[in-house]
TrEMBL record, chain A:
This is Peroxisomal membrane protein PEX14. Residues 1-14, 23-39, 99-118, 329-346, 357-367, 390-404, 442-452 have a biased composition (Polar residues). Keywords: Membrane, Peroxisome, Protein transport, Translocation, Transmembrane, Transmembrane helix, Transport. It is a single-pass membrane protein. GO terms for biological process: protein import into peroxisome matrix, docking. The keyword Transmembrane applies. It comes from Arachis hypogaea (Peanut). Interacts with PEX13; forming the PEX13-PEX14 docking complex. Interacts with PEX5 (via WxxxF/Y motifs). Belongs to the peroxin-14 family. Residues 405-420 have a biased composition (Pro residues). Residues 49-93 form the Peroxisome membrane anchor protein Pex14p N-terminal domain. Residues 147-266 form the Peroxisomal membrane protein PEX14 central plants domain. Residues 119-133, 467-477 have a biased composition (Low complexity).
From TrEMBL, chain B:
This is Peroxin-7. Residues 152-265 form the EIPR1-like beta-propeller domain. The keyword Protein transport applies. SMART domains: WD40. It comes from Arachis hypogaea (Peanut). One of its GO terms (cellular component) is peroxisomal matrix. One of its GO terms (molecular function) is peroxisome matrix targeting signal-2 binding. It is found in: Cytoplasm, Cytosol; Peroxisome matrix.
Length: 493, 318
């Protein structure tokens, strides 16, 4: 109660001033002009509400509240709208609650001194004879009982633990161990049975392996036969091919003779015709070759975003911090010396001086026209007009007021599309659905494109695989050779 | 309208009381959770191709949560840093000698800084260690510590008419009005049921104060009759982070919120919302109205952008 006295004096002083203030303010609610009266304005200048004080007393007398820190009690009452005087009065009426009156620290040591004072307060307060003795005894016994309670609580806990340990030991011995033993016996018996079974199985495995080997050998023999047939057929085809080539050569020779005759007979127009025909053939052949090469050499392009620039979201950073990690882009900073700022400052200072002179020039030449005004000083008239207007737009206006107001000299320009900075992000946030759909569309398109490319790329190896499958997969001999021949002939054609 | 992209997430923006084309931006890395911070001093230029020039940039070891311009020297800045220190910067000095002072007394993050506009020699800092501290430029330690709140003090603002009166808004859901000459707070009342994130005094009526809270509402109070608010303004979709009264129009105020919008209100009118700007793509955390240029306002947010525009125009128009 010792350190409460200065605050009580303060409060009494304030209270004595308050009735005067109340009288003044009940008369006329005017702003006080003199500075000496400012404390009266910024004070809870209401009389104490007895109801509130009684509610606070009930609150403070509650046993649960008495277990809580004093600061919480005070802040709770403040949050309920009690004025300081009402709170102090309530604390006064509930005697054994020691409000920590933390007045504004007078010096830097104020906090330390106040805390020590509070501790000293608590002890004399508990022992004051002015307090009802029962309350004091109750508090002391409560504290003592709390302390004993701690010890007894610990003893009980130890006893319970020991009993539970003994009980579990007994239970284990009596019931669980025999079960374990029987289970182990069962397992051992099963293992013996399994060993016998394994021995039986082993010959079967061997037999199976032998059978598999035999079948593999048979398949290999078939493959060898098929390959031999292939070779024979190839040789036959080569013979046929040679015959065909010879026939063709004969035809070519005949053709040459024909053309020679034509040349002799006709003029240069025939030459041109043949030359253009041959050029077209060459061009077509080259084009095919180019397409072929493009398809074979175009693997699907993979795009890797730059991982260093990936911006992390708020939740990611919070999770990192809670896990104890540090975000990677922080630097330990001893002194705020920046190489960047050192290079920028001289440049910027030069700019700043230039700008200042420029601004002065612009303000001097204010009457020249709009161009001389910096952009942020324009449209001042607009603001005054808005201030004079009594009607305002509702909540619908998104980009300012002036859409419905009569434009004076300067008309309201419809908002331009946002600049490049953060435009994509803004659009993405604004229109999530079409953006998502567009993304899905683009994703499907891109997937389709990539799949087409990959299909073209893999067509050739697939063709080769199909060739191999056709050639080697079949087991029958004669009909397979016929099929092979037919396939190859088809491909040639 | 110009846009400035900061490398870190923006936290606060303040116009200079001396130069109408100058403003300071407080930024913090990784949304202010962990990492470095940077204090930018920007200058607006009439050149449309390069609307912003960076006069200075100061790096700090921890995020900068708020900045305040000095009223006595045109180049002095006070930065509220998340490691509990208060740093003074002088843009007229070379960067090697900055910060000119680092004041370490708060035990937790310093959330706001405000300079006394009348006495011009002292400033307040409020912190998450439940205290508000009063400092002067010449002293290396604080003059006073005001410790009555029971939770983080988010904002401490000087009264523009009374040189010794200030208000503090705290996470314990109360607003306290203090007089520096008094040992303890002179007024305390709960303006909201949830945490009060910001407060500001009306520039034309010295008894009117606005508070905004996590409960998405802005309330305007007369401290002489603080039981019932003068006006309650709903309309934000999420917690309101900052409220500022206009220095030019009596009833106009601007607020920014976690719903990524900046709203302008007239609290004396029934339909109070004057305009809404949703140019930010992340939490809009800092907003300020210029004292020297009527209608000019600036805002910044966690999307690392600083916008400066005239009231009534589109902040994103080029």
């Amino acid at each position: 109660m010792a350190t409460q006295s200065p605050t009580q004096n303060q409060n009494q002083g304030a209270e004595s001033a308050e009735p005067a203030a109340n009288v003044d303010q009940q008369g006329a609610t005017e702003e006080p002009v003199k500075q000496s009266s400012t404390p009266l304005v910024f004070v809870n200048s209401e009389p104490m509400r007895e109801e509130q004080v009684q509610n606070a007393v009930k609150f403070l007398s509650h046993p649960k509240v008495k277990g809580s820190p004093v600061m919480y009690r005070r802040s709770f009452l403040e949050r309920k709208g009690l004025t300081k005087e009402e709170i102090d009065e309530a604390f006064r009426r509930v005697p054994d609650s020691a409000p920590t009156v933390q007045t504004g620290g007078v010096t830097q040591d104020g906090q330390v001194k106040s805390s020590s004072n509070i501790q000293q307060q608590a002890q004399p307060q508990a022992l004051q004879p002015g307090l009802p003795a029962s309350a004091g005894v109750n508090t002391s016994s409560a504290t003592l009982s709390r302390s004993r309670f701690h010890w007894s609580h610990a003893l009980i806990a130890i006893g319970v633990l020991a009993a539970s340990g003994a009980g579990t030991a007994i239970v284990v011995k009596n019931s669980i161990l025999p079960r374990l033993k029987s289970w182990i016996r069962k397992v051992v018996v099963e293992e013996d049975d399994e060993e016998l079974k394994k021995l039986d199985r082993k010959p079967t495995l061997v037999e199976e392996a032998a059978q598999a080997a035999k079948s593999a050998a048979a398949a290999a023999a078939d493959v060898a036969k098929a390959s031999q047939d292939m070779l024979i057929s190839k040789e036959e085809e080569r013979k046929h091919f040679v015959e065909v080539v010879s026939l063709l050569d004969m035809q070519v020779q005949e053709m040459k003779s024909m053309t020679n005759a034509l040349r002799r007979i006709e003029a240069q127009e025939d030459l041109r015709v043949t030359q253009t025909n041959t050029k077209q053939l060459i061009v077509n052949g080259k084009a095919d070759y180019d397409l072929h090469s493009v398809r074979s050499t175009s693997p699907p392009v993979s795009y890797e975003p730059p991982s260093s620039l990936h911006p992390k979201s708020y939740m990611e950073i919070m999770n990192m911090v809670q896990r104890g990690e540090k975000p990677s882009n922080t630097r330990p900073w001893e002194v705020s010396q920046v190489q960047n700022s050192s290079t920028q400052v001289p440049h910027a200072q030069g700019n700043g001086e230039y700008l200042n002179s420029k601004v002065q020039d612009s303000t001097q030449s204010n009457g020249d026209g709009d161009d001389a005004l910096p952009w942020w000083q324009r449209k001042n008239a607009r603001i005054r007009e808005i201030g004079n207007e009594t009607e305002y737009n509702g909540n619908g206006s998104s980009y300012g007021v002036a859409s419905n107001q009569p434009p004076p000299q300067r008309t309201w320009v419809p908002p331009q599309p946002p600049p490049i900075a953060m435009a994509e992000a803004a659009e993405a946030i604004r229109r999530p659905k079409p953006a998502a759909q567009k993304d899905q569309m683009s994703d499907t398109q891109s997937v389709g494109n990539s799949s087409d490319v990959s299909d073209e790329v893999t067509r050739i190896p697939r063709r080769s695989e199909s060739e191999g499958a056709v050639e080697g997969g079949s087991s029958s001999s004669i009909p397979s050779t016929v099929e092979i021949q037919e396939d190859q002939e088809l491909r040639r054609e | 309208m110009p846009v400035f992209k900061t490398p870190f997430n923006g936290y606060s923006v303040k116009f200079s009381p001396f130069y109408e084309d100058r403003l300071a931006v407080a930024t913090a890395q990784n949304f202010g959770i962990l990492g470095n911070g940077r204090l930018h001093v920007l200058s607006l230029s009439p050149n449309p191709s390069q609307p912003f020039t960076e006069i200075a940039a100061y790096d700090t070891a921890d995020g900068v949560y708020d900045v305040a311009w000095s009223e006595s020297h045109d180049s002095l800045l006070v930065a509220a840093v998340a490691d509990g220190s208060v740093k003074l910067y002088d843009t007229a000095l070379p960067p090697t000698s900055n910060p000119i002072r680092s004041l370490r007394e708060h035990t937790r993050e310093v959330h706001s800084a405000d300079y006394n506009p009348l006495r011009r020699d002292s400033f307040l800092t409020s912190s998450w260690d439940d205290t508000v501290k009063l400092w002067t430029l010449d002293r290396p330690s604080s003059l006073r510590t005001f410790k009555e709140h029971s939770y983080c003090v988010y904002s401490a603002v000087w009264n523009p008419r009374h040189a010794d009166v200030f208000a503090s808004a705290s996470g314990d859901c109360t607003l306290r009005v203090w007089d520096v000459r008094e040992p303890s707070s002179t007024m305390v009342f709960p303006p909201h049921e949830l945490e009060v994130l910001t407060c500001d005094w009306n520039k034309y009526d010295d008894c009117i104060i606005a508070t905004a809270s996590v409960d998405k509402s802005i309330k305007v109070w007369d401290v002489r009759s603080f039981r019932v608010p003068i006006a309650v303004m709903n309309g934000h979709g999420y917690a309101v982070r900052k409220v500022r009264f206009s220095p030019h129009v009596r009833n106009l105020m601007v607020s920014c919120s976690y719903d990524m919008t900046v709203c302008v209100w007239d609290f004396m009118v029934e339909d109070a919302l004057v305009s809404r700007y949703d140019h930010h793509t992340e939490f809009a955390v800092g907003v300020d109205m210029s004292v020297l240029v009527e209608g000019l306002m600036a805002s910044t947010g966690w999307d690392e952008l600083v916008y400066v525009w005239q009231h009534g125009t589109d902040p994103r128009a080029p």
